[in-house]
Amino acid sequence: MEITEKFTNNKQIITFLTEQFPLCFTAGSNEAKPLKIGLFQELAARLEGDERVSKTQLRGALRQYTLSWRYLHCIKQSVKRVDLDGNEGDDVSAEHAEHALKTLKESKEKAFAHKKKASAEAAPKRAAKKVNVPTRAKKAVAKKEKVEDLSNFKEAVHAELKLTQAVKVLLGQSPVSGVVVEIMKDDVQVQLDSGMTVKVKAKHLIV
User: Fold this and answer.
1) Which of 21, 39, 138, 204 could form a cystine bridge with 200, CB 3.0-4.6 A?
2) Does 105 lie in the same domain as 162?
3) What is the pLDDT of residues 98-108, one digit of tens each?
4) How much is the pTM?
5) What mean pLDDT comes out for the span 79-90?
6) What is the model's pLDDT at position 3?
7) CA 98, CA 111: separation in Å to the nearest integer?
8) Do 173 and 78 share a domain, yes or no?
């Protein structure tokens, strides 16, 4: 027993119709042909034993086919209508041609309006996203260290230095206070206020 799957949408049914009745239904780039008035009854009778499609589905698919822009373009006055086998019949009337043109115009306007609305709604999303530029943290203004007045000091003379004499050692940017603990031939050993002892030349001391 052959099991046949039922069609589930209009697209499948229209494809089926173009395969079954290629002289009546067309697809793709092939120009559509005006269908015979009352073609639905003829179609329903021809496919009555086909379990893949019901009359309701056929009616819906036929409606979609005849409302497509491609089909509406072919409904022009005096063009011959065709039956399922491609046999020509009556001409398209002026009234039907005018109605098809009106329907086509309204359908296009509706589609373009919908497209324009969708585009407008999407515009804010496409707009450049606001970039959060990280603000640089303001650097804490370093407190100005009190500059010691050294105008009353002078460079030490090795021969004039004495033990326990208060001096300032020129280390880094600021002189460091200390006392002379040992005087050697070329160097002087000074104990800083921090307790550390350094050996320096007399030229690195001020008194």
Assistant:
1) 204
2) no
3) 999 999 999 99
4) 0.54
5) 96
6) 55
7) 20
8) no
